[in-house]
Amino acid sequence: MRFKFKRMLSRGSAIIAIVQIIAILLAAFAVYPFLQANMLFVGPVILLLGLISLGMLKISGRTIRSVIADIVYGVLDVGLLSWVISVEAVFAGPVGVVFGTVIAHALTDAIAGMAEGHVAAALRNRGIEEARTPISSGLGKMIGGLLGAGIIITFVWLMLGQLVAFE
Q1: How many of the other CB atoms lie within 10 Å of CB of 39?
Q2: For 80, which of 42, 91, 108, 120 could close a Cys bridge (C-beta 3.0–4.6 Å)?
Q3: Alpha helices, H only, 38-133
Q4: CB 84 within 8 A of CB 101
Q5: DSSP conformation class of 167
């Protein structure tokens, strides 16, 4: 299958997606110094970036329904991975974080992929058109990942009662 980048650009969707990704990246870099001094806000800030991404998706003319399977994938994949990393950082140290993250990432990809396929099939069975494209799929996974990580990191850090620092 040939990748038709020129056709994507003519629709303008690639440019919109690139602008969204750059905006989130710049926002993340902008708040990083604040987060170094206020680590308790890491989860809520990541969640806020996810909500901003969701708003940008709506502004770009895409519906949430059209990317819900990808959002579910991102929430499960990055959310579960964030939970594993947070717990490992507290209990297993740096080596545990590296080793566990690699293993957990492979497992969360599988779990999230199964859930994504299930949601996509359920949408098709109900006659809901997903209209998945490489761009909408990528943005949906990014949004889901930010939302999942934001929720899980906030929850885990509150439950553990301590801040996770990789020092």
Answers
A1: 12
A2: 108
A3: 42-59, 68-91, 93-125
A4: yes
A5: -
Alpha carbon distance 163, 165 (integer Å): 6
The one-letter code for the residue type at 167 is: E
Q: What is the pTM of this model?
A: 0.77
What tokens appear for 132 in the block?
Answer: 């998945």
Is residue 144 a part of any domain in this protein?
Answer: yes
Nearest to 89 by CA among 40, 145, 157, 148: 157
Is residue 81 assigned to a domain? yes
Count up the domains in the chain and report the number.
1
3-class secondary-structure state, position 138: helix
CB distance 133 to 79 below 8 Å: no
The structure tokens listed for 112 are 């999230």
pLDDT (tens digit per residue) in 56-89: 888 777 788 888 889 999 999 999 888 888 888 7
Which two structure tokens, joined as six digits, stand for 88?
Answer: 């490992």
Q: Minimal CA–CA distance to 143: which of 49, 43, 61?
A: 49
CA–CA distances in Å: residue 69 to residues 21, 48, 97, 115, 118: 19, 21, 28, 8, 8
Q: Is residue 91 part of a domain?
A: yes
For residue 54, what are the domain limits?
11-155
In a domain, 16, yes or no: yes
